[in-house]
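Hello,

Our lab assistant flagged a job as stuck in the queue for most of the afternoon. It eventually completed. Since we weren't sure the result was trustworthy after the delay, we are filing this so someone can double-check. Below is the sequence as submitted and the structure that was eventually returned. Let us know if re-running is recommended.
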Amino acid sequence: MMRRLKQLAADRVGASAIEVALALPILTTMLYGIFTVGQLFEADASVQHALGEGARYATLCLNPTATGVCTVPTDTQITTKITSTLFGPASGITPTITTDTTAKTKTITLSYTTTPSFLFFTAPAVTMSHSRVVYYVH
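-- returned structure --
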């Protein structure tokens, strides 16, 4: 009986299969998590890029006249420019534009909310919000 017990204790057949069975779910979750976090970074890059493009466009002088009068882009034109430059998971979100006529500024805000899924569990919702203040001249 004791001899048989020693043989079983020394037997390593199947040990690798058990190690893989224990490690595979953890590794899979980690890889999926890396992919999910990568999507968050891509969405953040998209939002920042679109805001930069929208802010640049909002400062343009459209249709300048000989007397130096400019037409500034409308909020609809700025929104169209921003939404056309969004990419990845952040595409489809709509900016908020608030105008301060006293200070002659426009504040452009983009917010992106997602709930990351890490395969076996769902993380709390993540909201990324970025704003740009643009000065314009009439």
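-- support follow-up --
The delay was a queue issue, not a problem with the job. The result is valid. The helical segments are 2-10, 15-58, 75-85. The chain has one domain: 13-135.
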